[in-house]
Amino acid sequence: MPTVSMTVNGQAVSGEVEDRTLLVQFLRENLNLTGTHVGCDTSQCGACVVHVDGDSMKSCTMLALQANGADVTTIEGLAKGGEMHPMQQAFMDNHGLQCGFCTPGMVMSAIDLVAKNPNPDEATIRSELEGNICRCTGYHNIVKAVQQAAKNMGG
Amino acid sequence: MVENGIGASLRRKEDNRFLTGKGNYTDDINRPGQTYAYLLRSPHAHANINSMDISAAKSAAGVVAVFVGQDLVADAVGGLVCGASVTGKGGEVNKTPPRNVLTMDKVRFVGDPIAVVIAETLAQAKDGAELIAVDYGELPSVVSTSAADKPGAPQLHEECPDNVALDWELGDKAAVDAAFAAAAKTASVDLINNRMVTNPMEPRAAVGEYNSGTDEITLYMTSQNPHVHRLVMSAFMNIAPEHKFRVVAPDVGGGFGSKIFTYNEEAICAWAAKKINRPVKWTADRSEAFLSDAHGRDHVTKAEMAMDADGKFLAMRVSSHANMGAYLQLFSVSIPTLFHGFLLAGQYTTPAIYLESRSVMTNTAPVDAARGAGRPEATYLLERLVDVSALEMGLDPAEIRRRNFIKADQMPYQTPVVQCYDSGDYDASLDKALANADYDGFAARRDEAKGRGKLRGIGLSAYIEACGVAPSAAVGSLGVGVGLWESAQVRFNPTGGVTVFTGTHSHGQGHETAFAQLVTERLGVPVENVEVVHGDTDKGQFGMGTYGSRSLPVGGVAIANACDKIIAKGKKIAAHSLEAAEDDIDFAEGNFTVAGTDKTMNIAEVAFTAYVPHNYPEGVEPGLDEIAFFDPLNFSFPAGAHVCEIEIDPATGTLEIVNYTAVDDFGVLVNPMIVEGQVHGGLAHGIGQALLEGCVYDEDSGQLTTGSFQDYCMPRADNLPSFNVDYAPTVPIHNPLGVKGCGEAGAIAAPPAVINAIVNALGIKHLDMPATSEKVWRAAQAAG
Ligand code: FES
Ligand code: FES
Predict the structure, then answer these.
(1) Count: domains in chain B
(2) CB A95 to CB B507 under 8 A?
(3) Mutation test residue for ligand 1: of A34, A48, A56, A57, the one with most atoms within 8 Å of CB
(4) Residue B184 lies in a domain
(5) A73 and A91 share one domain
(6) pLDDT digits (tens, 9 = 90+) for B282-298
(7) Which of A42, A133, B97, B490 measures 20 to 30 Å from B302, CA to CA?
(8) In this complex, do B21 and A134 lie within 8 Å of one another by their Cβ atoms?
(9) What per-residue confidence (pLDDT) applies to B333?
(10) Cα A129 from Cα B179, distance rounded (Å)
(11) Which residues of B774-783 are buried (b: 16+ CB within 10 A; e: fewer)?
């Protein structure tokens, strides 16, 4: 089996994977980073979103081998020194999550959204989050959270 | 005033773990030596299994075991059970065809499981399943709700002639017919309540584990009600006795009803773990969830209203077919009957109501409770019919509702369809909703939109819901085979922290926070010192779980009652320590005080004394740990008025919700932030049903056409607006906390509000859900 090496949440990691192993499987099964979730099998739901070299990416739609040498950040890598990332904090402050299953992917997508649109209006947030499905919140509070985080992140 | 008690929008305790990736969902759990299960499912909607050869699969690489239905039967594993026995026309109880865990003779829907392959890896299990040779003898199938009981339709079960599981009626048909004959005006609408796939974002999953040393099975699973799952798998399926069987529902990623039921796969994991003496894991992928989760709704209905010359409702007549799918799931026939029929009075004084409801079997996945369960179907047909009635009468939709409302001073109100509402002020919620939505300004907005080439419409929905189903005796007499009480245990630890065991289960509702607030309010213990435990049959006492918006109105009261027992015992202990009479002890905000003095003792000190009883009242047991079971006197009756305003581009059929206003009566709000979130989520579910979601089976092949998120349209952020949420509370006389359930209201109220707005914009009588752009465009073109 081929070996794959990458940096995940600032740490160099490597492991043996099958050619067909998806990045999300490598994260969840090899590295036990179970914060990244799988909500579908058609690349629709966004529960699996992580950052690969700074861009949000559906980790169910990328082979582990394609991430060889990449810098990957998962939900577990966001909080620094026990302090939540402003996006995590904004989700908490605005009740932007209920069951929490879509949340890691939603937060990772939202961070990328704000990085690319520092001052997003509601319509932009809604259209940019179109690739993340949440069954619980109706998105209202997610939109509010992203707006607050964008402010706090200095947009 | 207690800090962080009832009424505080406290941030949720559970969020830290969910936001940092530390949640613990079933698929996150892996056990040493674990194997993986993969189910072979029928690719046909209806077929005889002529033969099946599993030998090649058994010897495939990595395969540990292959089981078929006969293996479970040989082990005396019982089939899946239906918990409903509802009495229909002629005193006939529903016919419940048997269902094996793995189907043996004849498959009846696409996805019907016939074998399980267990292997070292999931990939090997899948590869093994490929090697199973099945010779199917295909049969014609029927998937359509309205066609299932027609002459000549393919028959699913011997037990159900004409595919009818139950033919049910409610009300006095003769009186209703007479009222129609004498009515000044009548209105009628034919409608479909579209089939939905519940789709919590976490697919179902299970990990079974067997300990041969203790002969105990542990099953981690995605459950809304772990004790009930254990009970059913123990009592009816013979998996293990309850005391040797632990069911753990860890963090669960949404349920909305679909994780109430006992399914094949979870039972297989528990049984097979013992059989092969290794842990067995199964996780549904989304395609499998579409095929195998119980679906919701799927009614075809005719609804009629008889009115006097002023638009006063005299009688209502409803005839409905409900699709049950291929087998009766847990609640099944009780949904289109009891949960549906009992809601048909809505907010109105309609004196005579007749419902005839046929539950039919089809070659589709089983249909059961899904967020709202029967009540969205009832509300949709009623609130559509009321709008059609307004059209017939030439009355404003708000006005016809007001003319027919049950008035606040008529509460408690006995409806003709069993329910007795305990509270509500429907005029108040409608008035507030109309004001919040600027209903009076609509005409000007419509004209302005017209100038831009847009069609603007406004729609109302005045709904009532009956949740927190109770009391147990009534539930039993109606034919639902459970008690619907709830339990709680409130345990002081010696150092003053409180552990609360609830029999409900949280899968997004925030119980760990809201229930802690309840305890803080009652006992005056800082909220950070209260921990709520749920979801593990080995930790807490038996509980019925979470569904039907019951957790706070039923489970919350159990917690409050256990707190009151703590206070009562604490008074004895404090009286002894403070050298006063028990009757002289007051309790407030965490302190026991001798009335009229400053002699006081904090509840944490009392707890310590209870565990270190050196100086202790005679005849009082040590410890401070109380349990309570609460069986309510009545259902909970949340209600409200919603207003939806939309704009349609007639050239494209594109539709935008420009304003959605909800005014709900949930009684007392324990955590308003959480309640508002429940409203938002319910609205999204209801708007999803109205505009986007529709589960479709191909009429010829019986294949599930909408089997993934690519084909089944889930509401996404850009399909929805921000919501305008407000409240008009009343006091429910039957609920000791003054609370009402809030989890399903949005899903119940929204569909008719949205459709009423669309037909208003288009100037038509009716449009079936989901009102997709194509349908709206066609209707707009036809309406000219
Ligand atoms: S798991 Fe659904 S998009 Fe990746
Ligand atoms: S919080 Fe449950 S799916 Fe989004």
Answers:
(1) 3
(2) no
(3) A48
(4) no
(5) no
(6) 999 999 999 999 999 99
(7) B97
(8) no
(9) 96
(10) 53
(11) ebbbebbeee
Residues A60 and A112 both lie in one domain: no
**Residues in A touching B251 (Cβ below 8 Å):** 99-100
How many CB atoms lie under 10 A from the CB of residue B233? 27
* Residue B77 covered by a domain: yes
Ligand 2 atom with the shortest distance to the CA of B254: 2
CATH number at residue B597: 3.30.365.10
CATH classification of the domain holding A35: 3.10.20.30
CA dist., res. B83 & res. B232, Å (int):
10
Residue B512 to chain A, least CA–CA distance (Å): 12
Instruction: Determine the atom of ligand 2 nearest the C-alpha atom of B200.
Output: 3
CB contact under 8 A, B21 and A36: yes
- Within an 8 Å CB–CB cutoff, is residue A109 touching chain B? no
Range(s) of the domain holding residue B402: 295-469+634-783
Ligand 2 center–CA B369 separation, angstroms:
20
Contact: A99, B254; criterion CB under 8 Å: yes
Same structural domain for residues A14 and A43?
yes
A28 Cα: distance to centroid of ligand 1 (angstroms): 13
Pick the residue whose CA is nearest to atom 1 on ligand 1.
A38
For B297-354, write each residue's pLDDT tens digit.
999 999 999 999 999 999 999 999 999 999 999 999 999 999 999 999 999 999 999 9
Mark whether B439 and B412 lie in a shared domain: yes
Does one domain contain both B418 and B567? no
Same domain? A57 vs A98: no
Which amino acid would we find at residue B111?
A: G
Chain-chain contact of A100 with B722 (C-beta, under 8 angstroms): no
Residue numbers in A near B14 (CB within 8 A): 100
- Among residues B564, B596, B630, the one where a domain terminates is B630
Same structural domain for residues A69 and A12? yes
A44 lines ligand 1 (CB under 6 A): yes
Residue B335 included in any domain: yes
Cα distance between residue B169 and residue B417, in whole Å = 11
The closest CB to that of A138, out of B24, B285, B680, belongs to B680
Task: Characterize the bridge pairing of strands A3-8 and A71-73.
Answer: parallel
The span from the CA of A35 to the CA of B20, in Å, is 7
CB contact under 8 A, A130 and B717: yes
Q: Do B287 and A41 touch (CB under 8 A)?
A: yes
Give yes or no: residues B544 and B619 share one domain.
yes
Count the domains in chain A: 2
Neighbours of B89 (CB within 10 A): 11
Same structural domain, B79 and B211: yes
The phi and psi torsions of B291 (rounded to 5 degrees) equal -75, -35
> Domain check: are B127 and B275 in the same one?
yes
Question: Which is it for strands B530-533 and B498-502: parallel, antiparallel or unpaired?
Answer: parallel
A116 touches chain B (CB under 8 A): no
In chain B, the percentage of residues whose pLDDT exceeds 90 is 94
* Run of H or E residues at B421: strand B420-421
User: How high is the pLDDT of residue A155?
Assistant: 55
Order of strands across the sheet that contains B313-325: B164-170, B352-361, B313-325, B299-307, B185-193
pLDDT digits (tens, 9 = 90+) for B487-513: 999 999 999 999 999 989 999 999 999
* Whether residues B68 and B101 fall in one domain: yes
B655 with B603, same domain: the answer is no
A47 lines ligand 1 (CB under 6 A): yes
The number of the ligand 2 atom at minimal distance from the alpha carbon of A98 is 1
Residue identifier of the C-alpha nearest atom 3 of ligand 2: A134
User: What is the spatial distance between Cα B648 and Cα B258, in angstroms, rounded to a whole number?
Assistant: 34
In this predicted model, what pLDDT tens digit does every residue of A111-154 receive, in sequence order? 999 999 999 999 999 999 999 999 999 999 999 999 999 999 98
What residue in A sits closest to B675 (Cα-Cα)?
Answer: A95
Same domain, B283 and B310: no
- Ligand in nearest proximity to the CA of A106: 2
pLDDT tens track for B459-492: 999 999 988 887 888 878 887 778 888 899 999 9
CATH number for the domain harbouring residue A110? 1.10.150.120
- ipTM value: 0.98
Domain interval for residue A148: 86-152
**B256 interaction partners in chain A (CB closer than 8 Å):** 135
User: For strand B625-630 and strand B600-602, is the pairing parallel, antiparallel, or unpaired?
Assistant: unpaired
